C-alpha cells in the first residue's frame, strides 16, 4: 500500500475531522489564515506569568542575590562613568546648540530608569553625540522645547514598538548602513566643533555639514591663538592617552588604564583650573562656557506649545517642524542600544523588545525634566565594563553624581574653556568611526562599500534623517534584486525517445521574480526544443497571485507549442494556491514520483496520477 496515500487519509480540513481520499476532489483547498484572536488571547495571558515579569522587570533577577561586594563594584564603576559623563554631557549640549545645563538634565533620569528596567549591565543611557547632532536643527527652529518634545515623542514611539514586539525593525538596517551613518555623524560633529576648537565666535549657527564649513571659511580670520593652542594640545593629549590605554606591563599598565578612564575629566578640570588662574590675574585668554544654571530641573509636562523668536507654535506646528526626526531619532536610538547591548552581551541573547521598552521609559521620564533624547553610549558603556560593573544598578551612582554636580559644582563649570570641550568631543568622534569595519567590508564583500558610501555622502549632504533612509533604500535594492532573480537550474534528459527539459528554481517565487521565471522557461524551451517540460518545485514553499497567473500563462504558452508540462515535487500550500486559481488546469499536471525518470515512465498524456490525487 502507498504509505503517503495512507497517511493522507489523516489530512484534515477542520480539527479532528478526517477526510477520505474519495472525497478529496471536492475540497476547496482553502487557505489557512492564522487565528489572530487566539494569538491575542495567548499574548494577553502571558502578561501575567512569572517568566514575563522576570523578562520585563530584569532587576527581579539580580536583586535577590545582590550583596555588599556587588554594591562596592557598582559604586566604583558608576562614579568612574560619572566623571567621564559630566564633561561629555556639557559638551554634547553645546553640539545641540543648548545651554550646558541641558546636557546634565539629560544625564541622570535615564541612568535611574535603566538601572531597574535594563537587561545589559554595561549599558549607560545618556545624551550622545549622534542624538545631540540630530536635535540640533529642531533646537534652532523651536528652541529647547523642540529637543524636549522630541525626547517625549521618541520615548512614546519606542514604547509602542516595544509593546507590539517590533524589535525586528532594526534588522532592516545593515552593517554597512550603520557604519556609514556613524561615520557621517562623526565627520559632521568634528566639523561643527572646529570653530570652538579654534576659538571662533561667529554669530551664525549651522547644523549641516556644508553650512558648517562655509561658516568656518567665512570666519577663519577670527581664530584665537590661545584657544587654538589649548584646544590642539588637549586633543593631542586625549588621542595619545587613548592609544596607550592598557599598554605596558605591571603597575604601568594599571596606571595607564585608570588615567585613560579619567582622561576627559582630567582635561576639562585642567583647562578650567588654568582659566581660573588666568582670571585671578584679570586675564581671559580663552572663551569660557559661562554661567551654568544651578539646581535641579523642575518637573513639568513636556512642552506641547512654545514661544520662540517671537512666534507662537502649537503642537501641530511643532510636529510639522520636527518632521521625519520624530521617526528617525527613535529608530537610531533603538539601533544604538541594541548594537551596544550585543557588543557587551558576551554570548547572551539581547532582548531587543525589552531594550526598546526600557529606553522608551527612559526618554518619556526624562522629558519631564527638560532632557534631550538619550540612548546608549558606547564609550561610557565600555568604561562601565572595564570598571568592573556587576549589575545595571551602577547607573544609579552615575545619576547621583550628576545630581551632585548640578547642586554643588555648576559655579565651577563657568571656567571650563569651550576649546577643551570641543577637544573632548572631537577625540571621542575620531575613535567612534569604525575603521576596522570599513576595512572588513572591503576585504569580505566590496559590493557592501556601495551602501556604505551612499549613506555617508547622503548623510553629509542631505542630513542624517534623509541620509539613513537613502542608505537603507539603496541597501534593500540588493536583496530585492536577488529575490527578483532566483537561481534557476536546468538539465536535459532523454526518456522513452522523448526529450525532457527539467527546470528547478532554487528558492521561493514572489511577484518580483514572476516575469523572470516565465521568461527563463520560455528561453530555455526555445533553445532546447523539448517534448516535455518538467518543472521541479522542491525548493518552492511560497508563491503569490502574480506567480500563479504567470505560471498559468506559461503552461498555456507551452501547450500552444504542443509541448507537455508536468509539475513535480511541489509543496502542498503551493499546489493549493494553484488549485484555487484553476483546479481543472493544474490537477493533471502534478506528479510526486521518486525520480524524474519515473515521472516520465509513468506519465501518459491526459492521465491523472491517482496516487497523487489521493495525496492532495
From TrEMBL:
Keywords: Membrane, Transmembrane, Transmembrane helix. Its main location: membrane. It is found in: Membrane. SUPFAM superfamilies: SpoIIaa-like (SSF52091). It is a multi-pass membrane protein. Residues 500-567 form the STAS domain. It comes from the Eukaryota. One of its GO terms (cellular component) is membrane. CDD domains: STAS_SulP_like_sulfate_transporter (cd07042). InterPro entries: SLC26A/SulP_dom, SLC26A/SulP_fam, STAS_dom, STAS_dom_sf. Pfam families: STAS, Sulfate_transp. The chain crosses the membrane at residues 112-135, 147-170, 177-194, 225-243, 255-277, 321-344, 393-414, 421-438, 450-483. GO terms for biological process: transmembrane transport. This is STAS domain-containing protein. It comes from Anopheles quadriannulatus.
